[in-house]
């Protein structure tokens, strides 16, 4: 008797929503991205929070090894690696889901720009839940104009803060375009911007700093 099978391909948007609701707090999501930066040998990580108006936005930039376009394409997949793969002793990840899961727990749309150390050209990819709602597993490939615009926005925001990192050049930049959980429940008139500051030279700990819009982490 011939076996009968059914296609159980999950809805992309529904699966992402389910993955995102795994108990990630904002602190845990940021910690996951900081872990990635540490694994990439970053010596400084710059976190900017833009909450003056909606959508709230967050930049997480580091000066680590960076990624080529091919490496970025792989890193943005779900998952990006097998847990059976042998890993470096400095690699804090395992399942290849952390950056995507942590980001989707906080936002419905995020972009990653990256380049290798010493290179000038960035490549970019954007996960967008509205695109996934069309029923296909697709990710946007950012063009040069989009990349330039996002880099300019980061640099403009960076210069507007009091404690700009002198000589800092990001090799990888993660951009969360919207923090839906906060926007739904906090009005801009009452919000206190909180930034979580991490000391990565010691076991990870967090200090909640009221009205601070930048966190700088030295690894």
Account of the protein in words:
The protein is of the alpha+beta class and 219 residues long. The protein has one domain: Heat Shock Protein 90 (2-Layer Sandwich). The protein has 7 helices and 9 strands; from the N terminus they run H-H-E-E-H-H-E-E-H-E-H-E-H-E-E-E. Helix 1 (12-20) crosses helix 4 (98-104) and helix 2 runs antiparallel to helix 4 (98-104). The longest helix is centred in the C-terminal third of the chain and has 16 residues, at 144-159.
Our measurement of the CA-to-CA distance between the termini, rounded to an integer number of angstroms, reads 62 Å
- Residue stretches low in confidence (pLDDT < 50, at least 5 long) are 89-96, 186-212
Instruction: Tell me, rounded to a whole number, the average pLDDT.
Output: 79
Second rung of CATH, namely the architecture: 2-Layer Sandwich
The CATH topology is what? Heat Shock Protein 90
Major beta sheet, specifics?
Answer: 7 strands, antiparallel
CATH class term: Alpha Beta
Structural class call reads alpha+beta
Count of separate DSSP helical elements: 7
The strand line-up of the biggest sheet is 5-4-3-6-2-1-9
Order of helices and strands: HHEEHHEEHEHEHEEE
Quick overview:
The protein has 219 residues and is an alpha+beta fold. It is 28% helix and 22% strand.
């Amino acid at each position: 008797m011939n076996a009968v099978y059914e296609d159980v391909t999950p809805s992309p948007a529904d699966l992402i929503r389910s993955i995102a609701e795994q108990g990630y707090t904002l602190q845990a999501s940021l910690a996951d991205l900081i872990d990635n930066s540490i694994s990439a040998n970053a010596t400084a990580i710059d976190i900017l929070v833009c909450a003056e108006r909606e959508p709230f936005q967050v930049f997480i930039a580091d000066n680590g090894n960076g990624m080529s376009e091919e490496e970025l394409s792989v890193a943005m997949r779900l998952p990006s690696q097998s847990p059976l793969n042998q890993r470096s002793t400095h690699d804090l990840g395992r399942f290849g889901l952390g950056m995507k899961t942590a980001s989707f727990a906080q936002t419905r749309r995020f972009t990653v720009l990256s380049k290798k150390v010493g290179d000038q050209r960035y490549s970019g990819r954007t996960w967008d839940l509205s695109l996934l709602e069309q029923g296909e597993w697709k990710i946007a490939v950012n063009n040069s104009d989009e990349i330039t615009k996002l880099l300019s926005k980061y640099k403009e925001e960076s210069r507007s803060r009091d404690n700009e990192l002198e000589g800092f050049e990001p090799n990888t930049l993660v951009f969360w375009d919207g923090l839906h959980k906060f926007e739904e429940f906090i009005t801009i008139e009452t919000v206190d911007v909180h930034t979580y500051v991490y000391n990565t030279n010691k076991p990870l700990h967090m200090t909640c700093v009221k009205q601070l819009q930048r966190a700088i982490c030295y690894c």
